[in-house]
Amino acid sequence: MKKPIIATASLAGCFGCHMSFLDIDERILDLVELVHWGKSPINDIKTFEQDCDIALIEGGCCNDEHIHTLRDFRKHCRILVAVGECAIMGGLPAMRNNIPIQECLEEAYLNTPSTAQANPERILPNDAELPALLDKVYPCHEIVKMDYFLPGCPPRADLIYGALTALVTGQEAELPYEVIKFD
Amino acid sequence: MSETIATASETITLTIDGQEIQAKAGQTILQAAQKNGIYIPTLCALHATKENGLKTDIAPGTCRICTVKVNGRTMAACTTPVAQDFIVENDTEELNDLRKTIVELLFVEGNHFCPSCEKSGSCDLQALAYRYQMLSPRFRYAFSSREVNAESPKLLFDRNRCILCRRCVLAITTEDGKQLFGFTKRGDKSGIIMDEELVKNISEEQAQQAMHICPVGAIIRKEKGFDTPFGQRKYDHNPIGSETVCTTCNGEKS
């Protein structure tokens, strides 16, 4: 039987969920036996050379590039898994959701002690190459349909491994109480 | 409520999930269940214990997480008095799914960023989400705009996490009975306000009690954050409801 292909992406996240994934330690060797790797920051493959079976998405959407990436994953992957607090509810980036964008940008680029001196012309980033910020930070399932959710900040390595091997082998995931935590 | 219970002597027989139990007239379904070691989830109702410093049980009936079916009709267990031959359904797939829906609605209605909350691991709302295996709410997040009040020297009041359960309004009072918290406005504008003058003079013990009574992380005691390590917090190992309901009175309290 053909091995399933796994892809991963980090949108508005801190890469903590990817780090937690790597915390499966030597079990990654078992995973290598079971799957092929597609586009992922772990192997630095940047394009979809072929469609993937499972994609782990870390982080929510805070700019238009994230939306584009997420839709691209939805198009090229059979199963999308929202991994972690940011992908599921926006997480830390979503704490800006009740602050107007202008205020956020001014705080970050004009008013902090480190930027007030360094930016005397008071320029806000405005290059056309830069992704445009969204009005709010959105969890992934409000942009595209997500198939599974693994909560946590980050999700425990055991949760990621248990869910992933279950998906790959068609078994029921073994998810004991201790591995499902929101923090 | 407590006066009614103290004077009532009539014994009533009812069944909860097929288990026949005895209760006293005037008790609520929740109280009868607790006395018999049957778990019904609550976020607003609170059983008086030495630990939480309450003198009488409170049951505001605001959160509806204790919804049960009484003779086929859905009722709040914390506000419905027992009656002879009640047939109560509690731990059923249908009711647990309903409760899970309430938890999900509470999660999307406020701003519950668990990783940044000092009550995480000891939060009743979070623990119910674990119990009902909520991996993600089914609804869109409201990202409501809520204020944080950090003026008081001993308490932080974060409205982002408030679920309007009314526990603090009923339970936290001065010695002469003045309320430190109160409700303001109505409908989706409802909120809790603090009497800043009274809260300014709150004692260490009362600040601790306020944090303990709040089922979420809306009331946080200042300068004492994250003092319980991961792995030792209230709901780190066992789901909410798996402990004995009343540990201080062993169910003897009516």
Explained architecture:
The complex is a heterodimer of chains A (183) and B (254). With 183 residues, chain A is α/β, with parallel strands linked by helices. Helix content of chain A is 34%, strand content 19%. Chain A is elongated. Chain B is built from 7 helices and 10 strands. The longest helix of chain B has 17 residues, at 93-109. Mean pLDDT of chain B is 91; it is low at 1-7 and 246-254. At the A-B interface, helix 4 and strand 7 of A face helix 4 of B.
Radius of gyration of chain B: 18 Å
List how many beta strands of chain A DSSP finds. 7
Q: How would you sum up the global shape of chain A?
A: elongated
- Strand portion of chain A, in percent? 15-25%
- Strands across the major sheet of chain A, in which order? 2-1-3-5-7
Overall mean confidence score, pLDDT of chain A: 94
- SSE string of chain B: HEEHEEEHHEEHEEHHE
Largest sheet, spatial ordering of strands of chain B: 2-1-5-3-4
Beta-strand percentage of chain B? Answer: 15-25%
Cα distance spanning the termini of chain B:
11 Å
Please identify the structural class of chain A as seen in this structure. Answer: alpha/beta
User: Globular, elongated, flat, extended or rod-shaped: what is the shape of chain B?
Assistant: globular
Name the chain pair whose interface involves the most residues: A-B, 27 and 26 residues
Note the total helix count of chain A: 7
Q: List low-pLDDT spans of chain B.
A: 1-7, 246-254
The major pleated sheet of chain A works out as: 5 strands, parallel
Terminal Cα span of chain A? 38 Å
For the residues shown, what is the average pLDDT of chain B? 91
Q: How would you sum up the major sheet of chain B?
A: 5 strands, mixed
Number of helical stretches of at least 4 residues of chain B:
7
